[in-house]
Amino acid sequence: MAQEPRTLPPSPNWYCSRCSDAVPGGLFGFAARTSVFLVRVGPGADAIPGTPPFRVIGELVGHTERVSGFTFCHHPGQYNLCATSSDDGTVKIWDVETKTVVTEHALHQHTISALHWSPRVKDLIVSGDEKGVVFCYWLNRNDSQHLFIEPRTIFCLTCSPHHEDLVAIGYKDGIVVIIDISKKGEVIHRLRGHDDEIHSVAWCPLPGEDCLSINQEENSEAEIPNGKVIAQTPGTKGCYLATGSKDQTIRIWSCSRGRGVMTLKLPFLKRRGGGIDPTVKERLWLTLHWPKDQPTQLVSSCFGGELLLWDLTQSWRRKYTLFSASSEGQNHSRIVFNLCPLQTEDDKQLLLSTSMDRDVKCWDMATLECCWTLPSLGGFAYSLAFSPVDTGCLAIGVGDGMIRVWNTLSMKNNYDVKNFWQGVKSKVTALCWHPTKEGCLAFGTDDGKVGLYDTYSNKPPQISSTYHKKTVYTLAWGPPVPPMAFGGEGDRPSLTLYSCGGEGTVLQHNPWKLSGEAFDINKLIRDTNSIKYKLPVHTEISWKADGKIMALGNEDGSIEIFKVPNLKLICTIQQHHKLVNAISWHHEHGSQPELSYLMASGSNNAVIYVHNLQTVIESNPESPVTITEPYRTLSGHTAKITRLAWSPHHDGRLVSASYDGTAQVWDALQEEPLYNFRGHRGRLLCVAWSPLDPDCIYSGADDFCVYKWLTSMQEHSRPPQGKKSIELEKKRLSQPKPKPKKKKKPTSRVPTKQELCDGNEEESIKESSGPVENGVSDQETEEEVREPEPPCGDTPTVSKEPVTCTPASLGLEKSKVTINNKVPVLKKEASKEKPEALIIKKRKARSMLPLSTSLDHRSKEELHQDCLVLATAKHSKEPSEDVSADLEERFHLGLFTDRATLYRMIDAEGKGHLENGHPELYHQLMLWKGDLKGVLQTAAERGELTDNLVAMAPVAGYHVWLWAVEAFAKQLCFQDQYVKAASHLLSIHKVYEAIELLKSNHFYREAIAIAKARLRPEDPILRDLYLSWGAILEKDGHYALAAKCYLGATSAYDAAKVLAKKGDAASLRTAAELASIVGESELSASLALRCAQELLMARNWVGAQEALQLHESLKGQRLVFCLLELLSKQLEEKQLSEGKSASSSYNAWPSGSEGCFVERVTAVWKSAFSLDSPEQYQAALQQLQNIKYPSATNNTPSKQLLLHICHDLTLAVLSQQLASWDMAVEGLLRAVMQSYDSGNFTIMQEVHSAFLPEGCDHLRDRLSDHESPTTPAFKSLEAFFIYGRLYEFWWSLSRPCPESSIWIRAVHRRTTSVEQSQQVDNVSPEETDPKASQPEPSKTPEPDVKLTEEGEQMLNTCKELISEKHASLQNSQRTIAEVQETLAEMIRQHQKSQLCKSTASGPDKNEPEREAEESLSSPQSQRKEEKNEAVSLPELTKRLTEANERIAKFPESIKTWPFPDVLECCLILLHIGSQFPGFVTQEMQQQAQEFLLKYGNTKVYKRQCQTLCT
């Protein structure tokens, strides 16, 4: 497998006439989002033999918006220069070798749409924009020229390769012009014939017009005579020009005649198995390439992504050849945007194409076959997953609606990537392969869909019928739990699919029957654990590899551990206090099986915690345990953690992905950062360890990239802090800004995990049913997809012009100005006129019957006629036809005739009022008529009900009134007057409806007020209101108000939890008090302890004690904190503690300085906590014994370490008070061990001096019975005590001028002993690591040093350290560790060699390299003599079994308690003996040498043994 980094880049930008280019020698560049990616093609790419010769080599970073144009300089000697244009308004010139900007200009005022570097003038760059402005820029003289040829949108432009002043420009409306820039852009030819966008303009590579035998007559096209007749100048004399347009034609123009000479119509080809949704009709893009060495041929794109090679010699019949005609599936599946030729170093003629299908393809012009494909990503890389079955198969979930499956082990192709788009249709946010079934891939999307793909078939995926309401965060395969677990073995799947969604639920899907309903596992959790309070919002799920334990991460930062089959809650981890994003269990196949109980977790806080759950899982507690102490803490990232992955090749090695823009590899067991990868330009979203190569990791981010990188090649070891992270932030900000989308602002914001709905990714166009569009395509592409367009025919199309806000905003500016000018004038005038106006205009009320009134004011003849008609009507017995027709016409006579006519008159008047927009007058007329019901109905239909009308409604009856009020409430809702609507509903006693209306529109406060006032206190609605409002407030971060809501809903537990959410000391304290008031004592205790720990970090001792006072069960912790305070004070006085700070606020305890430390402690306990009876001591002891802390490492922070040590010391002091000496010894030993493990020698010595000021003798006397089980522990404690003394003794000798002390008397004389000091320098056992903080012995002036009596005694006691049993045990343990290390290394080498074998063409090819590599990569091979020591596997296994057998024979008592390294002590004694002869007895030196010879066979001690024992 290729051992080199690789990049899966973002997709080339769409709809740009020239945004990729290449230069001879094999450098190709394409614009993608805001940068340009460079690809080396041909022999120079150093590709692995047998794979395609290309490699992504870098990126040009600097633009802040989409790059719309890219062009190389095609002048020999300047191939390293290129130019880019961008929507940020600049044109930048770059040097690709240094990847830096040489110069730039921002001359354009509008969006730049075309760019070209002149092939004739080596420093001329021509660019054009959407308003038709062209700028010529001369790089060397930094000079520019502004040309405005036509007020039309420029689509493309190309400089002539034959004449330095000619430029051809294609416009959006189909016009093509050729201009002369030396004559201020004078138009030489205006070529008319196309009637749609010009996508491409290509000059014939040969000057003159002899290369094509085209007679004028042959051209059947009706010629369009050119605007002006131009005198033939040498410049214009001859050259052909080809143009490709959206009107589906290619035209060849003659420049000497200024007219078209040939038209080629694109053929409709049968689609050949393209990977594209047939329902998406896409627009055409017609791009051209006229090959240099074949002027009679022309390459063009076609409808579906095919490429055609046209034969121009036979213009009368349409003759073309298809690219890749023989092989299926090699073509692009969607339209092609750019074609650029490339001549490699080995003189191959290649053509590179970029397309909407997000592939870059390389074609061999000799055979027209596709040589290779570079896939790319059109969205964030959300998820990475390696198949556990099909090794090396990497699935990538991308925000462009497609899943990529990358066969990373392919020998023939570095980028063997398959795309899956069917049935996806939205961002792919989660992926998970089935653990055993080949090709079975589960995916989840941002719109809540969960589906299953079979990657080996072409079938669309199965989709689960149950959707999440929000984004799918995580998928996991696990054993079925009830109700799916019911049924016999064959009736149910062995594994079911679990999905966790953004709304906080975890669903269990049956993969055999996705159409059935999925189950929410909360129900089972509630039933099994009989939980009363509301369950937390789940954000992450992870199954332990053995399928017996499930971990759920929650939004409040807690992690819950459940046991199958019924999901019994066995443990809650309260560590993170922000939303949990990632949980990962350690693999089971390491050299230490117990590591599989390690669980790493990361949240929106930047710290990663590792917990060891072995004891909890194995003890299977009756009631759930709460864990608040991590096993390991990994801190260093500066932003939220999004993904975690354990290395399958190492023990305890973890990689994390973070929003700080980096991925970090940790040695989790040592809490040590190892490698930091900073290659991304965005926030990391996912990371995965290569299943085959221990050195290789894949990561994906919101920069649309997936990188494959090698840990060994990283120069940084930890995430950037301070300045560097600011630089990374800048780098990220130079990414495209999201275009603001106008959306109604939702009233409630749901916390997003990885901010999945960042809006940063503009690629999600949900309406499209095929793969969605490119992240930084302009808005027009979105339009395009929404309104599918038939591929031919004259259809109105959406403009190519991205909608810019400039004109609109200018308009605003202007209008603002005018308004401002007028306003003051108006005011003055108004104030003058006011009194007059009042006198003149007293507005006359509008007439109720205006039409009748006007008809009564007509001419005299008409009025006379009225009278006659009226008389006839009144007095004729039988109303005749004529009369009624007359009355019909003169409806105003209704006032004087019968009721029916009056009604007609009222109707006519009413209609008039409505037409003139006076519905209120119409309503009054209807009231007069007595038709109130009709009025209400019309008003309701037209949405014109008013308070007045509704107030009159009772006149028409009770039911009409009820109906009217409801209709009015509906109308008010449409007008967004919800509160008023609710009040009206209350007036007709619809209380529940009113409350529901307010609730659904988020008027919780009002809804609760009504519910409280109107409903019974026990009504469930009320509780539901409180809980809903509480949840929303909690999401928005209003924790105190949310807590009030939960209290209102009598859900006090949740109230305390939500108050604690902020995590600062004040909030925690309040939460603890609240919990204790409401009787949640366990919660109260854990919160009070958290609060105290927060205050402890700030060294606020008084506050910490106050917090612990809140709860009786924390009495023990108060003692620990008290002891810690006294110890810290003592350390501070000695100025030993790292935490020396003036800000410590100590408790004003009577600090009796007399007496030993233990007496001072017990005195304070007695005075401050009135702790004096054995019963009280016993109670405190029991409280503290239940708490277990993890062992320390070199990286444990000192404050945390001190707390853990003081916990053990408190246990020791309490046991002493109870005269329980066995436990006292164990407590002291544990404290000493913590400081020893963490390498903090200073603290270890401080513990010795405070608790064993007189040595260990008094303890020996107390342990009356020598056979007591604690004797080994005591021996161990004594050994550590002597070990500490031994070092102090050695150092007191090693100072430049030893001073007299209790151990030695110094008499100085001035000689130096060079040999001795040299010997001293040779010896520094690697094991004496914990002492790193101390000065090493150096060349010393040799004083006369005499031992005192105490010194002799001290050296005599060192006999205890030279213990045969312990030396032998430690030797066996070292052997086992070394064998395991060698085995792990062998496995790694074996995997590497397997890969190398399969990569190389012959098996022996890589042998010598591999051996060299082996010797380099194994850490043990630092010394020559070991290099040749090849150990066989059986030999290693033998060593391992022997060592294990030896260990098994030792009594448990020795194995249980640790002991200082015996050989280390031997070395120090020999050292002292060689430095100061006579100090160490001969017998002791001899014994030390024997031990070194006997047990010093492991690598650590070999060198020392050789130097000291020869």
Provide an overview of this structure:
This protein is 34% helix and 22% strand. Strand 27 and strand 28 (359-364) form a beta hairpin. Helix 30 (1271-1294) packs parallel to helix 38. The protein starts with 5 loop residues before the first strand and ends with a helix. The relative contact order is 0.04.
What is the gist of this entry?
The protein is an alpha+beta fold. The chain is built from 40 helices and 59 strands. The chain has a 5-stranded mixed beta sheet with strand order 42-43-44-45-49, covered by helices on one side.
Layout of strands and helices, then pairs:
Layout: E1 6-8, E2 20-23, E3 27-32, E4 35-41, E5 54-61, E6 67-72, E7 81-86, E8 91-95, E9 100-105, E10 112-117, E11 124-129, E12 133-138, E13 143-148, E14 154-159, E15 166-171, E16 176-180, E17 186-191, E18 198-203, E19 240-245, E20 249-254, E21 259-265, E22 288-289, E23 297-301, E24 307-311, E25 320-322, E26 336-343, E27 349-355, E28 359-364, E29 369-375, E30 381-386, E31 393-398, E32 403-407, E33 417-420, E34 428-433, E35 440-445, E36 450-454, E37 462-463, E38 472-478, E39 496-501, E40 506-509, E41 519-520, H1 521-529, E42 538-543, E43 549-554, E44 558-563, E45 568-574, E46 580-585, E47 598-603, E48 608-612, H2 614-619, E49 625-627, E50 632-634, E51 641-646, E52 653-658, E53 663-667, E54 672-677, E55 684-689, E56 696-701, E57 706-710, H3 723-733, H4 779-786, H5 806-840, H6 850-855, H7 860-875, H8 881-889, H9 899-915, H10 919-929, H11 932-942, H12 947-952, H13 958-974, H14 978-987, H15 991-1000, H16 1004-1014, H17 1020-1035, H18 1039-1048, H19 1052-1059, H20 1065-1077, H21 1081-1097, H22 1101-1109, H23 1115-1133, ...
